Amino acid sequence: MAVDSCGICGGDGRITNSFGNETRCPSCHGTGRRSDEGGLRDVTKTKPSHYRGTNKPGAPPPKAQGPVTFQGVQLANDVQASAHVSNDTKAKLMREIADHEATHGKCTETFIKKVKKQLRSIAPIAR
């Protein structure tokens, strides 16, 4: 009975590269005989568990509607307490405070001074 030898390694079950490294044949897995599977082993991920999810988030996390930090809440209370500012301006300043906290992590002293200066500039001048 004739046994077909492996076409990759020639039947000895070992292959050598140009650097002199020797390893098992990837086709016959070291047996030296031609495999019935034919060729190289398929190592692609074909299980359903490999297709569970992606790294892409489904929806972006919701933005904060108002300030979160202590300084941001105090500044928002100052904005809400000012009687001479319109509701549209109050809403705009509240969004600015929330956006600033989202990008910087906290309300900086410079930002607090800027908002308070805006509140003073909006105040009516008493004559």
The domain tally reads 2
Give the count of helical stretches.
3
Placed side by side, the strands forming the largest sheet appear as 1-2
Give me the count of strands: 2
Distance from first to last alpha carbon:
117 Å
Q: State the shape.
A: rod-shaped
Q: Secondary-structure element sequence? A: EEHHH
Computed CA radius of gyration, to the nearest angstrom: 36 Å
Name the poorly predicted regions.
Answer: none
Largest sheet: 2 strands, antiparallel
Residues in helix, %: 25-40%
Judged by helices, strands and strand pairing, the structural class is mainly alpha
Average pLDDT number: 81
Beta fraction = under 5%
What does this structure look like?
By secondary structure, the protein is mainly α. The protein folds into two domains: 1-38, no CATH class; 70-122. Helix content is 35%, strand content 5%. The chain contains three helices and two strands; from the N terminus they run ββααα. It has helices spanning 70-81, 87-104, 109-122, and strands at residues 14-16, 22-24. Strands 1-2 form a two-stranded antiparallel sheet. A hairpin with a 5-residue loop joins strand 1 (14-16) and strand 2. Helix 1 (70-81) runs antiparallel to helix 2 (87-104) and helix 1 runs parallel beside helix 3 (109-122). The protein is rod-shaped and about 105 Å long. This is Molecular chaperone DnaJ. It comes from Polyangium spumosum.
